[in-house]
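Moderator note: this is an archived Q&A kept for reference. The question asked for a predicted structure of one protein chain; the sequence and the answer are reproduced below.
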Amino acid sequence: MPAKNRLKTYVPESYYHLYNRGVQKQRIFRDSQDYSVFLSYLKTYLEPKDLDALNYCMLDQEVSYKVRDQARQLLRMNNFFDQISLICYTLMPNHFHFLLYQKSENDIDSFMNSLCTRYSMYMNKKYKFVGPLFQSVYKGVLIDTDEQLLYTTRYIHRNVMDLPQYKILASKGQAFRGYLPSSYLDYLGLRKTKWVHPEIVLSYFSKRRGMTYESFVGESDDEVSQKIIYEKTIDD
């Protein structure tokens, strides 16, 4: 029997919560470089390619061979700018969460296979690992409703609060002033990442008085539910 949420058939023009963790729950991010490399791969896949600049760089003989070779590799690399929109993410030491939108039914599978294979190769080379990095095929959950979309971003971002660096910053009253491997800073307006798209979620809160996205994430489940129920009653 297939494992729960191990989807291999996806619906076009739909949102999904995707996640995976290291084999035997081992760390997939071991230092700041690992986080940075993974995020750089996301950027490469999700930002549009500047084809003119890459072609010019590859043909310019005054540019070093190393730089021209990097341009050549980027030209050959998959790109999902027109296929995948990343709504939010959180990277934890031994797992990650994405909420994303796919345009066509095979976009998620192509994107995740490219990303996870490339990152596994990086980790195997750096740490001289042998065998798979991830426990199994990534898991996916279809987002059916607007409310599920909101609560999934909340769940993903609340993972940040379990990180040691968050707890240290929070104890100093500077919870979100440091680096966190999450899109939460983009949702709070403290950072603008071109390949992260919080607009659809934040638009919900721009229409609601008395609730911000930060309070939505920070408050208890009961408090949030009561506010949403109240607002639905007023709207009706």
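Archived answer notes: The longest helix spans residues 107-127.
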